[in-house]
Amino acid sequence: MGASAMHPPALQHVYLCLQFLLLCLQAQGENQSSPNFNQHVREHARNSDQLSRRHIRVYQLYSRTSGKHVQILGKRINATAEDGSKYAKLLVETDTFDSRVRIRGAETGHYICMNRRGKLVGKLVGKGKDCIFTEILLENNYTALRNTKYDGWYMAFTRKGQPRKATKTRQNQREVHFMKRLFKGEPLFPNRNRQRHFEFINYPVTKRTRRTRLPKRRHRT
Ligand SMILES: *[C@@H]1O[C@H](CO)[C@@H](O)[C@H](O)[C@H]1NC(C)=O
Ligand SMILES: *[C@@H]1O[C@H](CO)[C@@H](O)[C@H](O)[C@H]1NC(C)=O
Ligand SMILES: *[C@@H]1O[C@H](CO)[C@@H](O)[C@H](O)[C@H]1NC(C)=O
């Protein structure tokens, strides 16, 4: 059966379908109260976001293998810092909607970057994709940080806290697992709403979101 076999009734059908689609699209466009946010995020996450103001969070990264915190000592980086060490205080800048971040040491001002051999290095200028990581929340609730330039290469540390060559890293290895911890003594983030927004993206089922959603479903009896 070829396309030439199409009869007028069939054409009319196609025409009606198109009209219906058009109406749907129009209705969607008109409904300003419910933009398709997920789609929006997906589209924008592909590129670096140069327009929005950068959000900066302050936290420490606790390494699952070393049991200590990531510290930035200028060009050198390792994961042997105690909780609250000034070198473990990280300023984490969001790069896009999509939990891509630049991580800078508060004390030294160096960014955590990855060189082409998979080595972690501290750099003062962190504009390149080698200094951007995607935060991935794993099923075990640890966070992995995948480099944006070298896709598939993760930030990783050995048990002794030495950086592990990223060329050999996989998401399921303990060496790439981290826990984000507030910096000791740091007040909660300057803007609580931003923090909540961030948590919503990364932790879809938190106790907090559950608690805030429940009352909406409850009806008066
Ligand atoms: C607009 O979105 C709201 C909230 O999702 C929904 O209740 C409403 O039915 C929508 N209106 C139209 C015209 O689609
Ligand atoms: C991860 O965290 C969620 C929310 O706190 C919890 O429900 C879940 O059991 C945790 N998963 C693991 C493997 O610990
Ligand atoms: C980590 O850096 C500190 C400070 O420079 C140093 O004393 C320590 O030996 C380093 N540890 C490792 C495992 O590289």
From TrEMBL:
SMART domains noted in UniProt: FGF
Subcellular location: Secreted
Keywords assigned: Growth factor, Secreted, Signal
Gene Ontology CC, one term: extracellular region
Gene3D superfamilies linked to this entry: 2.80.10.50
Signal peptide feature range: 1-29
InterPro entries: Fibroblast_GF_fam (IPR002209), IL1/FGF (IPR008996)
Entry similarity comment: Belongs to the heparin-binding growth factors family.
Name of this protein: Fibroblast growth factor
Organism expressing this protein natively: Scyliorhinus canicula (Small-spotted catshark)
